[in-house]
Amino acid sequence: MNRSAHQKSAHVTTRRLLDMKQGGEKISVLTAYDYTMARILDRAGIDIILVGDSASNVFAGHSTTLPITIDEMIYHAKAVVRGVKDESNRAMVVTDMPFMSYQLSGEEALRNAGKIMKEHECDAVKLEGGRVIADTVKRITDVGIPVMGHLGLMPQSIYKYGSYKVRAQQGLEAEQLLEDASILEQAGAFAVVLEKIPSALAAEVTRSLTIPTIGIGAGVECDGQVLVINDILGLNREFHPRFVRQYVDLNTVIEQAVRQYVHDVQEKDFPSADESY
Ligand code: KIV
Fold it and tell me: What's the rounded Cα separation, in Å, for the pair 94 and 116?
């Protein structure tokens, strides 16, 4: 078996991600919220599937990530894990801990991280925040649950920021972000998402850490990239931020298919004799 064939079949682990960083291999990450999509992503060779709390926006139609509950996240994550297992079982599955499932106390965070891991056998959880959640990250990783951090624009804090604009453009916030990344690494995080920060800062953070950085709107120097699946597939008509590369316009493709179906039903063109019993 050659090297790439071997890598295709092996489930991606935190160790593997470290090796990828050390070997200069970029890490690909996409979100997914359901079984069918998870199967496609795993088959296509994605390294990590993030069951993002962006499900709150793109799946449930809320305007922020705040309303989604831990049970709703577990529902999505169960479907994604099932999909990966039924495909090549290669992709690592990381589940977002939703707003207020880890902020109240270390004990509650640990209980909820454990609930997520036990109920759907994903590989890791993701939490937003730096020094403020460092003890919590340590507590969770100490019991053996891998934690991915998330710095820069943290959508769960949108009411504090008041907008989704680029973060850490100024001195103090940038310095703090650099420190926070290092604090998360020391607390045991295996990777850190950097969302919507200047490329130069993301590059500096990436160089300063042993663990991989995964960028979204953070430039090409990050060790990996993450995007929301609905965005790269062009499912949302209204959302076209600069950091998204849209690979296909599925919104239009689906609309056309549905229009054709409606037409075929109305015209009694469907079902045909071949499509009937
Ligand atoms: O919830 C999510 O989709 C995320 C990514 C955008 C990083 O956190």
Answer: 10
DSSP class of residue 65 equals S
- Cα 20 to Cα 29: distance, rounded to the nearest angstrom: 13
- DSSP codes joined into one string, 233-246: TT--SS---TTPPP
Q: Is the pTM of this model over 0.90?
A: yes
> What is the residue with the minimal CA distance to atom 2 of ligand 1?
52
Q: For residue range 103-133, what is the model confidence (pLDDT) as tens digits? A: 999 999 999 999 999 998 899 999 999 999 9
Q: Which residues span the domain enclosing 142?
A: 3-246
- Residue 22, amino acid: Q
pLDDT per position as a tens digit, 189-227: 999 999 999 999 999 999 999 999 999 999 999 999 999
Determine whether the shortest distance from the Cβ of 226 to ligand 1 is under 6 A.
yes
The answer on 260 and 227 residing in a single domain is: no
Residues 277 and 184 in one domain: no
Q: Which residues, other chains included, contact 64 with Cβ-Cβ below 8 Å and sequence gap of 6+? A: 56, 57, 155, 158, 159
* Best residue among 72, 73, 228, 236 to mutate for probing ligand 1, ranked by most atoms within 8 Å of CB: 228
Same domain, 205 and 275: no
d(CA 28, CA 65): 23
